[in-house]
Design goal:
With 432 residues, the chain is mostly helical. Among the domains are: 77 residues, Leucine-rich Repeat Variant (Alpha Horseshoe), CATH 1.25.10.10; 151 residues, Leucine-rich Repeat Variant (Alpha Horseshoe). Helix content is 65%, strand content 0%. It is built from 26 helices and no strands. About 6% of the residues have low confidence.
């Protein structure tokens, strides 16, 4: 049975909730709508639309609007646009939220009108929804909302502009951050955090000097600023991040380690290596991954030892992944015995690393190890190994002569599926 099909138990529950939409009790109707949304019950879309238009109870209409956004059926877009004119602000707000959740580009005009709604929460929901539409030109319309005195509207606008990648907002955001730096206050921390995160995601190089100031002296936001500097990738942030490794805050040290790796700031390598012996497994894991990005070849022996003996089930796979970045084919014999390791995360990382280190796609020992891992009883390990084997095959294809570089490549669903299979591993190892 396809994994997309609902179980009989879920189907029975959906039908029960659809029946309850006709209950004389409004509380039962709203509860049924909430459950249908949670179950992503496509078959309930028309019933929820009917109630959204006709139910006399505002809480029921609001619950229907929210459920339609969770279900995401495009047929609900225009009914939700109509609901932006509902007499109840709860319903209008829920409709705006759902349209944003559905990234409903058709609703851009209706949401623009909702920016003028007399209800604060509806206006805020409309700003947030516009940010999720993925229409860059809408950013210019939201820029004036940065000047509002209400910090909640400011935060919502900053996030919306970041989602729309509105780079025109960067100078104003930097100026806002400078204002908060001049007179820091506890109540401003949520807005400052939102600003720092947005500037990092916008890769705002013009914000680097101000973010460095935040790392040095804005308590409560320093680790977020360190992370933002890593996202931006400007090497001038290297010294302050290296200095942050001596800070008392564990969160700041973790953020600095990760960002130094992202920056590939090699002068920090000796300082990063010290964390390979940290009693905190989070520090060891993050430092190990940073060493990989820094390309610190002097740490290869230590990484091999960590891969074999570290007490953390997540640090050891990180060491294997780092060896794929800093090692060379000479360490392949040291890694091959790990095919038998009991740590499934490590075996999956090993498949990717062996492929990275194998300079020759015909490397017999590597191919044999990958073929063995491809039969692993743990499915995600087997998928990672199959992906690695496909990578080896692709490498061989690239080296073949007489290939027309302009020829369109035929789709290869097997390769695409296998390549996606390792994404879970990267997410696990890059946490911290």
């Amino acid at each position: 049975m396809s994994t997309n099909k609902k179980s009989q138990k879920e189907q029975d529950a959906i039908q029960r909730h659809i029946n309850n939409l006709q209950s004389p009790n409004p509380r039962q109707r709203s509860s049924a709508a909430e459950e249908l949304g949670r179950l992503h019950a496509e078959e309930a879309t028309s019933h929820l639309i009917d109630l959204l238009h006709e139910d006399v109870n505002t809480y029921v209409r609001s619950a229907c609007a929210e459920a339609l956004g969770q279900i995401g059926n495009p047929g609900a877009i225009f009914p939700l646009m109509d609901a932006l004119h509902d007499s109840c602000s709860f319903v209008r707000r829920a409709a705006a939220i759902s349209l944003g959740q559905m990234s409903a580009k058709e609703a851009q005009g209706a949401l623009l009108h909702a920016l003028e709604d007399h209800n604060f929460y509806v206006r805020r929901a409309a700003i947030n929804a516009i940010g999720k539409l993925g229409i860059p030109d809408m950013g210019g319309i939201l820029l004036p909302f940065l000047d509002t005195s209400d910090p909640r509207i400011r935060r919502t606008t900053i996030t919306a502009l970041q989602r729309l990648h509105t780079t025109e907002a960067i100078p104003q955001m930097v100026a806002m951050l400078e204002e908060y730096m001049e007179a820091p206050h506890q109540r401003d921390i949520p807005t400052v955090k939102t600003l720092v995160v947005a500037l990092g995601k916008l890769k705002a190089k013009g914000a680097v000097p101000m973010l460095i100031r935040v790392v040095r002296g804005y308590v409560g936001v320093r680790s977020l600023a360190a992370k933002a500097l890593g996202r931006i990738g400007d090497p001038q942030a290297g010294p302050v991040l290296q200095a942050a490794l001596e800070d008392r805050s564990a969160n700041l040290r973790l953020a600095a380690l990760k960002s130094l790796g992202r920056l590939k700031y090699q002068p920090a390598a000796p300082s990063v290596r010290k964390f390979l012996s940290s009693p905190d497994p989070r520090m060891r894991r993050t430092a190990t991954l940073a060493i990989g990005y820094l390309g610190d070849t002097t740490a290869v022996a230590r990484l091999l030892n960590i891969a074999r003996e570290d007490g953390s089930s997540l640090v050891r796979p990180a060491a294997v992944q780092a060896l794929g970045r800093v090692g060379n084919a000479e360490i392949i014999p040291d890694l091959l015995p790990l095919v038998e390791d009991t740590n499934a995360y490590l075996r999956a990382a090993l498949a990717e690393t062996l492929t990275a280190l194998a300079l020759d796609g015909e490397e017999p020992a590597v191919r044999a190890a990958l073929e063995r891992l491809a039969k692993d009883q743990v499915e995600h390990v087997a998928k990672a190994a199959r992906s690695a084997l496909i990578a080896l095959d692709d490498r061989e294809d690239i080296e073949e002569p007489n290939i027309d570089p302009l020829a369109e490549e035929a789709p290869d669903p097997e390769r695409d599926l296998a390549a996606a299979a390792t994404s879970w591993l990267r997410r696990v190892l890059r946490r911290g």
